[in-house]
Amino acid sequence: MSLVHLRAGQIVGNTYLTILNTGFLRKAGESEERITAVSSWQDAPYFTDAEQAALALIEAVLQPAPHGNERVSDELYAEAARHYDEKALATLTIAIGQINFFIALALIGKPQPAAHAIAWPIFVLVVAHRRTEW
């Protein structure tokens, strides 16, 4: 799931999320090749078909669709469903929803990369406090 989180941070251009999730992947023992290749996963030989489907799904959700097209096409959903059972696909879908929540917090709160040790609950309070200063 951290691969998907990393790709989301890259797509929205958020250094905090990119560094945070890169660190999580390193701690989990991911290779530097896989971490580095997330941004160009489509032609990288390092990802399983299931991982590619998950990365395609997060890209479809976060990037604008061509005019008149759905972001998540039936074909993309079917591809993801080929690799994940119903429960796993539901978990992936919920995780993508959570990613969107944390993207909003990171974009609004603007944490600095060095502050990645801050726990998310504390970060939420910081965001709330920052907004009350307006």
Concise structural overview:
With 134 residues, this protein is mainly α.
Descriptive notes:
It holds the Pfam family CMD. This is Carboxymuconolactone decarboxylase family protein. Residues 2-59 form the Carboxymuconolactone decarboxylase-like domain. InterPro entries: AhpD-like, CMD-like. By secondary structure, the chain is mainly α. It has a single domain, classed as AhpD-like, CATH 1.20.1290. 67% of the residues lie in helices and 0% in strands. It has helices at residues 2-11, 15-27, 32-37, 49-62, 74-83, 86-109, 120-132. The longest helix is centred in the last third of the chain and has 24 residues, at 86-109. The model has no long low-confidence stretch (mean pLDDT 85).
List the helices and strands and how they pair.
Blueprint: H1 2-11, H2 15-27, H3 32-37, H4 49-62, H5 74-83, H6 86-109, H7 120-132
Helix pairs in contact: 1-2, 1-4, 1-6, 4-5
Specify the helix fraction band: 55-70%
Summarize the helix and strand pattern as letters. Answer: HHHHHHH
> Helix count?
7
Low-confidence stretches: none
CA distance, first residue to last residue: 35 Å
| Overall body shape | globular
Radius of gyration: 16 Å
Q: What is the mean pLDDT?
A: 85
Q: Could you give the count of β-strands?
A: 0
CATH secondary-structure class: Mainly Alpha
Under CATH, the topology can be stated as AhpD-like
Instruction: Describe the largest sheet.
Output: none
Domain tally? 1
Percent of residues in beta strands?
under 5%
> Would you identify the CATH architecture?
Up-down Bundle
Judged by helices, strands and strand pairing, the structural class is: mainly alpha
| CATH homolog superfamily | AhpD-like
Organism: Rhodococcus daqingensis
InterPro entries: AhpD-like, CMD-like
Domain Carboxymuconolactone decarboxylase-like: 2-59
Protein name: Carboxymuconolactone decarboxylase family protein
